[in-house]
Amino acid sequence: MASSWVPDIDPASDFSLANIPFGIISTPDDPAPHAAVAIGSYALDLKVLTANPDLSSQLFPSIPNLPEAFAQPTLNTFAELGRPIHRQVRTALQNLLSTTTAHPSLLRDNPTLRARALLPQSAVRTHLPMAIGDYTDFYAGYHHAFAVGAMFRGPDAALQPNYLHLPVGYHGRASSIVVSGTPVRRPVGQILLDGKPEPVTAPSRKLDIELELGCFVARGNEMGRGIAVGEAEEYIFGYVLLNDWSARDVQTWEYVPLGPFNGKNFASTVSPWVVLADALEPFRAKGVEVEGRPEVQGYLREGRAESVFDVRLEVDLTTAEGDTTTIGRTSSKHLIWSFPQMLAHHTLGGCPMRSGDLLGSGTISGPGGVDERGSLLEMTENGKKEVLLAGMDARTFLKDGDTVTLRGFCGEEGARVGFGECRGRIYSALQK
Amino acid sequence: MASSWVPDIDPASDFSLANIPFGIISTPDDPAPHAAVAIGSYALDLKVLTANPDLSSQLFPSIPNLPEAFAQPTLNTFAELGRPIHRQVRTALQNLLSTTTAHPSLLRDNPTLRARALLPQSAVRTHLPMAIGDYTDFYAGYHHAFAVGAMFRGPDAALQPNYLHLPVGYHGRASSIVVSGTPVRRPVGQILLDGKPEPVTAPSRKLDIELELGCFVARGNEMGRGIAVGEAEEYIFGYVLLNDWSARDVQTWEYVPLGPFNGKNFASTVSPWVVLADALEPFRAKGVEVEGRPEVQGYLREGRAESVFDVRLEVDLTTAEGDTTTIGRTSSKHLIWSFPQMLAHHTLGGCPMRSGDLLGSGTISGPGGVDERGSLLEMTENGKKEVLLAGMDARTFLKDGDTVTLRGFCGEEGARVGFGECRGRIYSALQK
């Protein structure tokens, strides 16, 4: 991969020329949200870039509707154009931004356009990248499912009988998905205190995170017609980090028999830049292998073993005093089901996907110690042990004023494919 | 209530002058979906009616944006205007359509406009009335929850410990909600056959219905701010019938520990005409009272006892041969939680509602025999007994070719407030 002429790209930047993730920004000159890509510490404004028809047709020949797509307040229209178009556009942008660009006069040597189209990320605001019709959260993080199951039912009954046969998942709440940086109010809910049988209504005392990979659907299937696992990659737009904030005490009381509800629907945070499926292709890995696992049903059988991605994931907790501790490090390879398998299962009965639908992987934890876990529930054994923090502090669950930042990246310095930050700060349930 | 000059209104019509439900239609002259109300066997085209600015301002003084709202392909914009506006518009339409109308020249005595605006329902197509952001299904049908719980856990443990304390609910799938008349494909899914521990992938053998009342949200709350139970009525637009089709065998295998998923997300059918909250006001009733019930939490306490509605509900099953049997009769008063309580609980932790969100009551069954049940699961004790049908036929669960029609209405003949039909026909999982 060549390098980029864009100035000052840190070798550790998530947004190298090898990445080119798509997002939605508003700018001082144009407050209407519209499309951009991230490169180094800059955002390249795609609405500005494609506003000139000559330049647009030279850069993206034979994709006439791109200017309209990039002027939209979400990426759904672009996503629906399909993976061959995403690939073509990403490649053209990599060429445009490369030191070896075939078109230096278009942008690199065009100071007027550069000043308008290439903006410091610090000068733009990012927005939710997609209009999310439905959000589904799976439970494909094997070590998380095992650890949580063992905690409540013991190691011999840790996994439910269906777990190795199908990607267990549930319908989440789309309306409360927010973009990184949005503050998160501690939810009030019904909880049981001190083992008493009658609930109280109070702010959650077990506010937790869930470290997940999120997958945005590019285009939908016809209702009644499933998506074959072998074709599912063509329905995937790209990936984000996802923090599925959870109120464990609310969830414990409410979830029988129909699953999580208010314990989850107060907020879920996604990172703003969608890493295209193509950008992750070089980082394929095998998912979790379980000895003696029964053969999966035919509709879930994939043609390749390397069906997940090895994204290095980290969780930072920053206290109100400003001390930051990395409390978890793991990888997105610790999934037992791939996103194509999740899509094939989700649509097996005919459920229609739509462009912009979000699938969550479920919490991702590694097989090792507590520092490989994607939730405080696991790190603290449901509040029994403390996680030690910088600044002589410690946590069982989150305190008001805490900021949680998820990070994730693949690849070597100088050619990293990363997600940037997925960040949220907790504020008090009682704040007016 | 006066009667209407609209011709040939059957006294048994659900759409008397006392009702005036809103829907979305397309017509031979205007294939773009837009707003209408139902009156007798006619649809009054509100886009045509309000296209003339003079007439619109005479009919609806001081609501200048109605023509735009009624030209939309969904009722969301109209719903967001709020209940005082819905009330004003419904009252004006009742006046316009009444034999005692103050404005006979506007429509009754205007044959040109009548021919264009007042169309037989048989000549128009109805569409999904709202763009549904999120769909939540509750479990507030007390006798259903008790009967199903008793079936699987015995009568002493029929209700889970949380059931009397909070409106149990789960997030459903919005993308597979369809309007009455849409055919429903029998879903394929993973099921356990004959008690074997390993699943097979096959068409569901336990395809069922769920008789529910659906509630559309008028307008949203700010994220992080709940809706007080006493204010929740102002957030309600209106009601429809809802058939939450269920594949019981798929659900049984998949639902632990995160709740129903593919057993539900293949289709849910709603009736096309939204009965406004105001139209149901005269039919308030007390919900289910349970002896020894613990006092509910403060945020769920309502100012009035009559917090639900007594809508008479019926379920018809029509075989492929055309024989129709009414297999269930009950009332929507058999709820233990009201929709305001559901809204207050749903938003307790700050979850944002949006205009068009759909809340399902959960299956509604009466306290009596099997003919008062809202699901075949209950009527047949999970397939152990048969429901006898006209035409020497019988069912445990649905067969391909079966049509299920839900009906519901309040009030006396000549002044009925009803929902029309919520209908769906099952076709084979194997059909190409």
UniProtKB/TrEMBL annotation, chains A, B:
Organism: Chaetomium fimeti
PANTHER family: FUMARYLACETOACETASE (PTHR43069)
Domain Fumarylacetoacetase-like C-terminal: residue ranges: 139-426
Binding site for substrate: Y139, R153, Q251, Y255, T363
Enzyme Commission number, as recorded: 3.7.1.2
GO molecular function terms noted in the UniProt entry: fumarylacetoacetase activity; metal ion binding
Pathway: Amino-acid degradation; L-phenylalanine degradation; acetoacetate and fumarate from L-phenylalanine: step 6/6
Residues annotated as domain Fumarylacetoacetase N-terminal: 18-129
Protein's UniProt name: Fumarylacetoacetase
